[in-house]
């Protein structure tokens, strides 16, 4: 994304009709159309208030209306509120405070504020000759911007998962949460960790939540808490991200792969029972693409053989199964806060959910090197804590999460309708559960060709997953590829399309039109 | 009566002490022609038809805000405090300095 920081003179142009206004208005409108992020420097608020007020007073005097200082400032505030509604406030950072040695501290603040952006992605829009001189290529006039945009229009970039729009929507809370952690300084196990765990447990309805360093760590710690180790078997799906099987193998156990359903791509519960042996210690279904598997059937089989069930809900936080939240559908639920997940952080993070007090205690201890109290290690553990900063980020995202889930459900439903109209095969969703569509996945022939055509059209796609785990070099000795023919077939045909709570209806239509043209 | 005053950053100061019977009245002020800013800067104009309908609609939305700012009635507000007057003066100083440097506000 490209960024455009609006200098004070441009914001004044937008607020009050004066000589430079028409071009400033056009430049800003063009920038929005071309996907630029518009910024106004938060440190300029008071300058903006008084300069806009001053210009408004002059403009109203010209039409015979003399306003008092307070009246015109009130009007200026209202106009500024309306004009900046599509802009982001660029936070004033500490580095932008120590500018008194500069010939013009006000200018220096804006110039320094540009340094936080990746080089070449941000420019200052200004009509101020001195700023243009000082900034060089990093500043541009409205007139030059218009010329450039008309000659060489840039298209808004189509993101596979649009995290930037989400970040813009939650930026004030996000910045406040991050700054709070920087100020209290408890970077490990700070108060945000406990607060997030309480909120996540309440959200899912699970009795306990333990945040951990990643989704993979959540699975590993869960298996360790269940005492799974060498010689044990864990039944799972081969059509998933590698972490599901990786943690089993890491503990010396063996993943036993069960084929998937052809319509949902989730583990086929009807095929599980025949794979149970005396070495089986757990069943680990994956809620693939954001939709839980047949949990009632899986739980019933597990109960029959007294086995725990670990739901790998890395992709399905927020989904429901018969009215219950994913992560609270079995003995243990594990999710991931990888940035692209429906609820993600800005790094790695994950969480374990359970109603079982003993499992909870074990997971808490294993997460911190197996210690039951400081430097007293009752079991072997790992360094598996989720850091406070990441928890603070998820807390900010959680405030918007209900809306995001609703958006995902609506967009997924619309994708379904559009795909069905176009005759495109897709992963199906069952009526008794919801998917949060971590991925929206269709089934296509000649996938490489289609991917290339989408790439040419500027539409990103992805494949989840191109090779089943039992065909991967590291795991193929565990199970023959032909043993799971449905997974083998789907891996050749699945293709995921852009999806996310902030996908616009226009973008969605563009994707569907592109896809239907190729069929 | 005619008195000499000094204009300084938005405030008129009388050269001799005067007391007024009224708090509010109008008066005529002589301002030297040479200190009044008359030069209107002009900018190249772009043909609106060069822009897409979305851009034109956004321009129209912004223009509507500008028009309303000039025409909408403003409710009565309290008199300015001394602190607010000082703040105005500070920003007038900023604006005047910029004007002297030939810069836009």
TrEMBL record, chain A:
Gene3D superfamilies: Aspartate Aminotransferase, domain 1, Type I PLP-dependent aspartate aminotransferase-like (Major domain). Keywords: Aminotransferase, Pyridoxal phosphate, Transferase. It holds the Pfam family DegT_DnrJ_EryC1. One of its GO terms (biological process) is polysaccharide biosynthetic process. InterPro entries: DegT/StrS_aminotransferase, PyrdxlP-dep_Trfase, PyrdxlP-dep_Trfase_major, PyrdxlP-dep_Trfase_small. It comes from Thiothrix eikelboomii. One of its GO terms (molecular function) is pyridoxal phosphate binding. Belongs to the DegT/DnrJ/EryC1 family. PANTHER family: TRANSAMINASE, UDP-2-ACETAMIDO-2-DEOXY-3-OXO-D-GLUCURONATE AMINOTRANSFERASE. Signal peptide: none annotated. It comes from the Bacteria. This is UDP-2-acetamido-2-deoxy-ribo-hexuluronate aminotransferase.
Automatic annotation (TrEMBL), chain B:
It comes from the Bacteria. This is Uncharacterized protein.
